[in-house]
Specification:
Elements: E1 3-5, H1 8-20, E2 25-30, H2 36-48, E3 51-56, H3 66-71, H4 76-86, E4 90-92, H5 96-99, H6 118-121, H7 125-140, E5 144-148, H8 152-164, E6 170-174, H9 194-199, H10 201-207, H11 213-223, E7 226-233, E8 236-243, E9 246-253
Parallel strand pairs: 1-4, 2-3, 2-5, 3-4, 5-6
Antiparallel strand pairs: 7-8, 8-9
Helix pairs in contact: 7-8, 10-11
This protein binds adenosine monophosphate.
């Protein structure tokens, strides 16, 4: 059975014990509602480490939209089953008091990349992400931590933070897992109405089209999306769109 730990100090002690016994620790931070994308990270962590920890915590400090936070799915029982089947040994399930005993007095702020793209549309988002990830790293102290390329900007920022703070761990990036029609798997996809779900794969198709980003933006608008941004950054094209109340992000190699 997967071992469930809710208390931060208990998790820290347990993981310190495992490290001292010589076990390597792979860590997959998530917000739950686990799908094949998350499970690919768990599988990779299991292939590269002796012990795999999955955290499930819907982090309020990274939300600027209370509706999005309130509507985030929380199917805990299924999540635990899926995590265990994918090879996780420990599920860390903290609550707000465990993570934010300081009432968010201390936070990590990055002043460049975090202001762009997602950061320009979701105020304070990456402060919340980086702060919770640093706290989780402090509790779990993994040898390797696994992040999806689906959240490309998050991955870069976590990697840069780990380097800036000399964190003794490896940040491992994992490719985006997609539905057969190309839509990037996301916990939010379940909230798409049937007609929105039928339009949604067009997002990935357009981002992969190789056209100038201005043309991509027009194509997306014509298909029925509201476009937050479509931007090229080096070798990648990144986008965020909205279909009704659901916001989707994706990125592909340019
Ligand atoms: P979340 O639960 O949305 O915070 O995601 C937890 C981790 O899973 C993050 O590192 C995400 O980038 C990763 N992830 C989410 N969706 C996918 C996907 N479709 N493919 C690969 N990784 C993903």
């Amino acid at each position: 059975m997967i071992e469930i730990i809710r208390n931060a100090n208990a998790a820290r002690d347990r993981l310190r014990g495992l490290s001292r016994q010589g076990h390597s620790i792979g860590f997959v931070p998530t917000m739950g509602a686990l799908h094949e994308g998350h499970l690919s990270l768990v599988g990779r962590a299991g292939a590269e480490n002796e012990k795999v920890v999955v955290s499930i915590y819907v982090n309020p400090t990274q939300y600027d939209d209370p509706d999005d936070l309130a509507n985030y799915p929380r199917p805990l029982e299924q999540d635990l089953e899926k995590a265990e089947t994918a090879g996780a040994h420990i599920a860390f399930l903290p609550d707000y008091e465990e993570i934010y005993a300081d009432a968010y007095r201390f936070r990590v702020t990055e002043n460049q990349l975090s202001r762009e793209l997602e950061g320009a549309h979701r105020s304070g988002h990456f402060d919340g992400v980086l702060t919770v990830v640093l706290k989780l790293f402090g509790i779990v102290r993994p040898d390797r931590a696994y992040f999806g390329e689906k959240d490309w900007q998050q991955l870069q920022l976590v990697r840069d933070m780990a380097s800036a703070f000399f964190l003794d761990l490896e940040v491992v990036s994992c490719p985006t897992v997609r539905e057969s029609d190309g839509l990037a798997m996301s916990s939010r996809n379940a909230r798409l109405a049937p007609v929105e779900r039928s339009i949604a794969p067009e997002f990935h198709r357009v981002l992969s089209s190789g056209r100038p980003t201005s043309e991509m933006e027009s194509a997306l608008k014509n298909a029925g999306f509201k476009v937050d941004y479509v931007e090229r950054r080096g070798e990648r094209v990144l986008g965020a769109v909205r279909l009704g109340k659901v916001r989707l992000i994706d990125n592909v190699e340019a």
